[in-house]
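Hey, can you fold this one?
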Amino acid sequence: MWTSPSTLRSLQKGDFDMVLAAMEATDERKNSADFSDPYYTDIPAMILIRAEDADVFTSLDSFEGKSVGAQTATTKEDIVKNDMPGANLVSIAVVDDLINQLVHNKIDAVVLDGGVATSHAESNKDLVVASISLGEAEPYCVAVAKGDPKGLLPGINAAIADMIKEGKVDAFISAAEALDDVAQEVSAE
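Sure. Predicted structure:
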């Protein structure tokens, strides 16, 4: 998911107390914030491509010299930079804008959270998920200011534990998935 660098800067400045936005606790982010226990792990990141290109993009190396989109300030940008040799990263803040760029042949692929990629492939016959593994998904955590100056993490972790134990996280996920049918289809037609 998208977490702008300014989000963590604002957290550090005290503009808000926590960030709850499907944020992965990367080593780089741990330098700027402290993180809760994980509350959810999505399916691994995936590469979304046009269906007509499924035979072209069969390995990470096949993206050399190609334009690959990723949402700005996410770990998906890191995948393009670090795991797709020679790919040209196109950073865009809004996922729907990335999808439009892909559908209209402005970029060749998009790296997305697995659930997001799958949802777009299911709702648009012109798109498919490439048969390329990007490894394991990292769990999502809540971020608080470095050093947890307001002492929020114990309460956040307790709430996460209770929600997991009571099945509320699964209920939230199910409710969100029920909204998938509400999404508007994007196609080249």
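The helical segments are 5-13, 27-30, 75-83, 95-103, 114-123, 153-165, 168-178. Let me know if you want another pass with a different chain boundary.
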